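FYI - complex with iron/sulfur cluster, inputs then prediction.
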Amino acid sequence: MSDSILKNRFGEGAATAIPSDAPLAEKPGHKLRTSNNIVDRKTLAEVGGDQQVDSKELQVLSGQDIQFVEEAGQVGIIRLDRSWNKDGNANCPNMFTGPTVRTERERFRFDGHKLMYHLDRIALWEKGEKFAPVHIDMGLTKFCNTACLYCYAVVQNMTQGVMIQRDALLRYIEDCGKLGVRSIGFIGDGEPTLNPALYDATVLARKLGIDTAMATNGLLFDMDRAHDMLRDMTWIRFNLSAGDSEGFQRVHQSKGKNFDLLVEKIKTLVEIKKKHNYSCTLGLQMVLIPECYDQVLKEAELGARLGVDYFVIKHCSDSEYKEIGIDYKDYLRIEDVLKEAEKFSTDNYVVQVKWDKIKAGTESPLYKDGFRKYDVCYGTPFVLQMSGNGKVYPCGPFFNKERFYIGDIHEQSFFDMVMGDRYWSVHRDVTMSVDVHKDCAIGCRQDYVNKFLWDLKNPPEHINFV
Ligand code: SF4
């Protein structure tokens, strides 16, 4: 083995030692680049005819930090250098002796957008033509059976009993199919399971080729329709910001026994999903407020135990008047806890924090000191929002604002609405008059898409030098 300690170009010590019994290539091809001897992986796999060398058996010498990586049926050696980064677990770039690291597939994109996969709509937008939203977030009701401390909808006139009527809802789903809307999230305003038409709307949407999803507190989820939902919905997210019954009572202002009821329902849904091989993704979402800081790790652990696909932690959306009273800088206090929670991730369970928005109070790719890194909201025709009373607006934070009211699906066909003039003049009004830094709530649904479209509209010089 080589025990020389070299300096890399950053001045860091670059230990090049590898196990003395690891077979080395006679003519190491990368020697010039890395100054290292390279393990001959072929020789490693097959030494002396039939004799197989098990790399994992190689003795790791003291002072070395080595990881064995299996790739394409071969085992290679990666040397780790814990001095490279303060977390102490990073691979040292360009100092490996086996296959390099593999970027893990991003299973979900909670902290970002997917508009680049809908370039056909962007092309229509750039030509100034009318086009259907890629996605619509919509309430199905305007009331709820819990009173969560973080709820944005409560500042927007929740009214018991108000919901989208079944006929109008199914007609609207048909229109979405005709228009080519690609997905609908029953998310926002009141609790969707309080509208009995939810289940048939989901089944119809699937028949028409529209993806659906739902965010629910889960307590009234009709288990008799579990198969329909798990078969036809793309994902179901449970709005749960607690990991135990005591936290549940505090944050959701609901009875402690409801926590057990919900946990049982989620467990059963996970079992049905697995047994019948349904593809519906099941996840938990915490809306982060100080009252649930002590619940973060408990819920990360609960999600693992329940066997759900993910646990995501997001910022709390406050109104532009700060009616909920969120101090975004306060989130930084528990950054280490959030990072700890992410360590619960496994191959089958993703725990992820929406860092771009959690860090809105400091700096993230989207925000700096609470201000957006774009000036104009272009995203509303791509991601539309509808209130749980059937009234259509460009975005959730503008519900009830007459100036931005587009129409009501009880009174007008959604197809005609999207093809009509009022719809487009409201979207134009948003781009022309809304000051996103002053008129808008932090962290709105269209944020990521807005930043992307802003960059498209405001290219730097020399774009051909990609
Ligand atoms: S940036 Fe403002 S107008 Fe645009 S979607 Fe967000 S809240 Fe609505």
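The longest helix spans residues 256-276. DSSP finds 14 helices and 16 strands in the chain.
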